[in-house]
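Re: beginner question about structure tokens

> Can someone show what the tokenized structure looks like for a real chain? I only ever see the sequence side.

Sure, here's an example I had lying around. Input first:
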Amino acid sequence: ARSGEKAKYIEGVMGQLPGSVETGESTKPLEEVKHVVANMPAKIFAPTGQHSIISANFSPDGKYIISGGDMKNSLKLWDISTGKETGTFTGHTEDMIYSAVFSPDGSHIMFASRDNSIKLREVVTGKEIRTFAGHTGLIFSVTFSPDGKYAASGSMDKTIKLWDVDSGKEVKTFSGHADAVNSIVFSPDGRYILSGSFDKTVKLWEVATGREIRTFTGHGEQISSVAFSADGRYALSRSGDRIIKLWDINTGAEVRTFSADNVDAAGVPTGSQGIVSGAFSPDGRYMLTTDRQGVIKLWDVATGKAIRAFAGHTGWVSSITFSNDVKRFISGGKDGTLRLWDMNTGKEIARFISLKDGEWIVLTPEGYFNASPNGAKHLNVGVGSKVYSIDNFYEKFFNPVYVASVLQGKKIEAVADMRKGILPPPDVRITSPEPNTSFSTDTATITVSAKDTGGGIDEIRLYHNGKAIGEDTRAVKIVPKGNETIKTYTVTLVDGNNTFRATAFSKDRTESNPYELIVKLTALQKDVSMYVFAVGINKYKNPALNLNYAEPDAKGIADFFKQAGTGLFKNIEIKEIYNEQATKETIISKLNQLQNTNPQDAVLIYLAGHGENINDKWYFIPYELTYPEREEDVKTKGISSDELAGYIKSIKAQKILMLIDACKSGAVLIAFRGFEDRKALSQLSRSTGVHIVAASTKDQFAAEVKELGHGVFTYILLEGLKGKAAGKGETVTVRKLMGYIEEQLPEITKKYKQEAQYPVVDSRGMDFPLVIAK
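And the corresponding structure tokens:
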């Protein structure tokens, strides 16, 4: 953390500084969004349950960001090219990550916490290598020497310690400061260490001897951070006196003072916001500072003039760092956001938000976002007097490909911009039956009312226990009535509680807040059956598309449930088709047969073969589709995610798990393969209310490993079903299985191909048991 006065520093890192929204109750806007349509103002609100950012740094190759905050599990690794949070580093016994840095080669991360120790971990595996212990006070700053052989740490115990990275042993201790050492840095040639202390001084130390070379005095308050220029000739110090000083290393002379005090046109101070953080660019030409209001300024070091201002943060910004190419920089602060900025334009590229429950969000200024499965629920948008989750804007603004393109610096035109206005969604209510009504028969009529609030009514959806109800015209009636549309559904209830959730969409596909009610069926319990539909295509009509393990994978799933017995289910019915049987017509016919299931039943659908993605729609490639590189052939002969959604909605069973192991069929790899699949398949899950897990792969090798005898995805799936997803004698549920796949798939794929493969996982339906672990 980077405060000035010692007391304020401690308060700041303890969460007492202005701008905190840790309670989850703040409505302070992060960014105002002007509403053009219907003249309704909108705001994006601060997320709830986020980590405050204390330390953030780029990896040497610029591919990753490490950020640490006010919780012991807040150290996060971010992939800059995708925006995805790829890892959490733990190990400290106390909360608060004060400092986190990459090793010069980018292979390791070193970080310090309030437990007076330092941890070293591998970036790729997350494995803890060693702990450095010896300080008797809090460790505020850690850094590597330029050659990576040594590390240094500054502590509340008034000392600096030099460590041998390979052995973990303390090499020497530098003593001389009269108070806590808050910031340290090696000179570019590794010969010196620069330190800043609460004693208001900056000191220069010779690494080889531990000798104090020089002391820089002149600040009126505690030193908060120090830095070397790229050529090692100058030092930068920031203090609680709200100014930054530039020093000549050789002479100790003060070269320049930078202040963020506000002045009027005549140059008279009108109030100070103070400098609270600063950084040198790697080439030494520029400096960044931030004030107490979160405004970031770019300075020309040679002239001392401010070049550009960057606004967006709300309140204290405690960490700011240039990228090595000096084209971008990151900033992190008390508002819980880590932001990536464009140096030349002054515009925010994206913000990264890590939540305390392990979820995450990455968001562009236009409102496009990518998020972990439940991350979006934490970010809200206000439209007039109503507040919606950003998840309500999922269909238009959930776009991992757009987010990744922006992060990679690609020129891409935004189709929509939340700041330019959104159409207000309808108001939705379930008007009949009354909440908590009890039924003695299993048939009920549900009436949904949607009122147009200015954005029109594009669609009404009703979910029964999380599963979307199909649009069978015999069971659904629609009656328009002025600005209101009334929709009635005839449904079959399940034993016990039945939860109904209704939503509606405006013409621009903004989703309403849901309306829920619960009714109860008091009839006798019904038998529960399990239906498994497995499709595996090894041999295609076009031999160039042939695979090795799709058929044995599908048979492995079918055989498992044949052998699992009926301990949890009265009956298990298996439907399986392979190779030349797996035509589009046959697959659809088998899906339609599942309509005859009962609401209390469970259905597992497994598809193994080739898949394609065209214009945000995913397609399963049946046996007879010979040229998947031709878009029109895929659109007419493939089975799209939209078609699958229609068939799944018509299945009466409410417990549905869909598993997809489909690799890219074309010869050319797609850069955003996983992201394209995720958007299409997540939309399929969202619209139907079912669980979907897919192995999204770039090529066949990623899906098939000879040593395992199965595709990697299905191998892990079967291992989980056999008991590894739960303890012996426990029930393997859908969510336990999904968690096991998410955890194991990256590890196993790294083991066999040195590149982690992450599954597409989207869980919208209710959890349900699959098998009892043996």
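Each token stands for a local structural state, so reading them left to right follows the chain. The first strand starts at residue 29 and ends at 33.
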